[in-house]
Every structure is written in structure tokens, then in C-alpha cells.
Write the C-alpha cells for this entry.
Amino acid sequence: MASIYIHIPFCKQACHYCNFHFSTNLKNKEAIVDAISQELSLKSNGFSETIDSIYFGGGTPSLLDVNDFEILLNKIHKKYSISESVEITVECNPDDIYENKLIELKKMPINRLSIGVQSFVDEELKLMNRSHDSNIALESISKSKNFFENISIDLMYGLPNSNLKNWEFNLNTIDQFNLNHISAYAITVEPKTALESYVKKQIIKMPDDDFVHSQFNLLYDFFTNKNYINYELNSFSKENYFSKNNSSYWLRKQYIGVGPSAHSYNGHERSWNVSNNKKYIDDIKNKILFSGMETLSKVDRYNEYLMTGLRTVWGVSIDLLESDFGEKFKNHFLKNSKEYIKSNFIEVNNGVYTTTKSGKFLADGIASNMFIIDLN
């Protein structure tokens, strides 16, 4: 199984924390959709894996017209082998969700919505420069539930000036909707963003790591006590509702990325498209399918397996380490994991190493500390 990620590079306005590629100018939207359709055709050549996830991300895919979705989905169904149980997700901003739009989306094979709420606290939404307020966020979820059963909500924590009271309010608010999936991300200060500028100028101050960790612990306890599965550091799901798109990445399956700045992975190579809308359109016209590529060495793939495995319920398997990487890699992992087992950051069950509650928030650091830099 494999997945397709479609990057829609348009937004109404720039969120202060976001460094993803997008444009607020929609004048070449039609040309972008045509180019993505052509790229889907070009990348289908020789691709035999069955697609079980199609994900419209961005940017803001909910800015597309229904006709745009039809063009792209028809092309995918024409050019690729599609699983009968394919999950088709569209990321939506709350202010793009209205009844007629939902009716139109429901008529299509789209079966999952991911709504970028981020917070139900108006002060936090203003700080992030989101284009909606808390009332619009609440209405968007209520309306969506009338048409879609499989809905995910994005939340953010670790915000400047945040406190546990607001975070508890966000968790309790989302809980009333009884959703199947919640993604929650600790905000990071990315280069070339408004947030970075504000932090550098000391206009705002980011919370310390201990406070952000306490927010994660509250998040973890809140949802796991309600029988959600923390299947990946940022993702909480009811059973049988894991995001297929997310899982595809964390399980290192193949994925095709189309659209400006999109990445693709075939198991041993990673490639990416140019992060410029006009240049992307020109590249596709000239059948240039990527602007960069890297071939992953065995060490690269081992390090990525640690990074993805320790963030998830699937963990790191000793049997897989030995079969895919060999004795030397396995022994390196066994040696370096001992201190984390002793510190109760990692636990072992039937040869599978996973992070404990204490280790989850630290998973990236734990993994990077066990990376192989030089095998010699």
C-alpha cells in the first residue's frame, strides 16, 4: 500500500507560525490544478502500488472549488490502482466550512475532514493570526458532523502567553464533540516567520520546555483516559481511526507527493518539488518531476527508522533491525537503549522497543541520541 499527498499552495492569509509553502494570491489556481493533474499522470508511469490514502494538504485545500477536486480525483482513479477502502482527506479551515460546501464534498469520494481549529481561545487565535474565531471553529465542527463521520481536529500548544487553564478549556471543548481523531502539535519557532521576528524582538516570549511538557502530559492523560490511542506523538485516535496518511509516513511506506514543495519517498530515495508556484508550473510543463533528490544510505534509513519508530505505538523491532540492517546496527541500538530503559523512558515488549509516557515527549531527542553517525 502507498499514499498520495497533494499540496495545495494557497491560503487566505499567513499564520504567524507557518513556514510551509503557500501564496495568498489565487490568480494562478487553475494553472496549479492543471499542473498537479499532469504531475499525477507523469508519476503514475511504472508505479504499481495500491493507493490506500489520498490527502489534500497545504496551504488550504478547502479553498479549491468542487470542480478542482473532481479533476484531481478523476485523474488519480484513472491512473492509479485504488484500494476499495481508500481514505480521502481534505484539510479545511473552519471559515471555509459551510453547508453547501459540505454537501458538495460529501457527494464526492472524500470521506474524511481534517479541520485546522488550533484553539478555541480567541486571544490565542489572534496571536496566531488565524482567519477564524472560536465561534466559527465550534460551528465548523458541528456542521461537519452532520455530513462526515470521520473528522480530525488540529490543536496547538506551547503558545506564547499560554496557560494550563486555557489548555484544559481547549481539551474539554473538543471532548464534547466525541471526535474520532485529534492531532495536537507543540508550536515551534520556524525561520522566516512572523513568530520568529516577534520572539527575536522580544515582543512575545515562548514558554519553557517544562511548561510545554506539562501541557503534553495533560493532553496525554486527558485523551488516553477516554480510550483514545496515542498512536504517534502528535496523534490521538479511537480504535480503527488512525490516519492512513500519517501512518503511511510513520511506517515508512511509499508516498507520492504532488504540487509545489511536495515530497515523495519510494523506500530508498526522497525527492521534492520546487517551492515556487510559477517555477513549479514551468517544471511540470517541461516534465521536470523534482527539483532535488537524495538517496538514503543504510545509516540514513536506520536513523529514520529510530526517529519514526520511537514516536509511535509500533516502536522499534529488534527482529526488523536485524533483518533489514544487520547485526552491527542491532547491537548499536541494544547498547544505546539501555540507559533509556533504566530511566523508564523506553520499555520492551516481545522484542519491540517503545517510549513510555515519560519518554514520549522526548522521543525525538532520544532517537537522535541513538543515531549512528559513523559505523567505523
Observations:
- The chain has two domains: 2-250, 298-369.
- The two ends are 36 Å apart (CA to CA).
- DSSP finds 15 helices and 15 strands in the chain.
